[in-house]
Amino acid sequence: MAIRLTTDADIDAFIVRIIDDANHHGRTVNMIIQPLSDEVRKYLDLRYDTVYVYTREGNMGRACWVTIKGKRYAFSYNHTDQNITLRLKNMRGTVQFSFDNNSTAADIVREVANL
After folding, report:
1. Residues pairing with 52 in the sheet
2. What is the pLDDT of residues 24-54, one digit of tens each?
3. Torsional sign, CA 70, 36, 92, 114
4. Could you tell me the domains of the chain?
5. What is the overall mean pLDDT for the chain?
């Protein structure tokens, strides 16, 4: 199940929680989460676009789905490769890009602009 984040405040709270979790369990991605979120949000218009977060047993997860300009993308943490994977459509979709703390600002700008 997923819940929709409908305001900037909802997204901010989600990102803060994700960064906090990453500081403990995902140190290979903890520094890239905020810049990645900031760049995606430049293209996000919550009047038309959507952000959904996975939930299990009432608890909010870390994976999210973002629809921008009618296209749906999934962001999730890849435990094997220790990165944030951006996929087209869903968690099993085609990998568009993988981000970690070694990703540059230019990488983020380029890849998000391609959404």
Report:
1. 4, 65
2. 888 999 999 999 999 999 999 999 999 999 8
3. positive
4. 2-113 (3.30.920.70)
5. 94
Cα gap 89→99, rounded to integer Å: 17
34 Cβ contact list (under 8 Å, min separation 6): 15, 19
The two structure tokens encoding residue 40: 């995606």
* pLDDT given at position 86: 96
Which of 45, 44, 17, 46 shows the shortest CA–CA distance to 33? 17
Q: Does 61 score more than 90 pLDDT?
A: no
Closest CA to 74 of 40, 46, 47: 40
> Facing residues of 56 across strands?
59
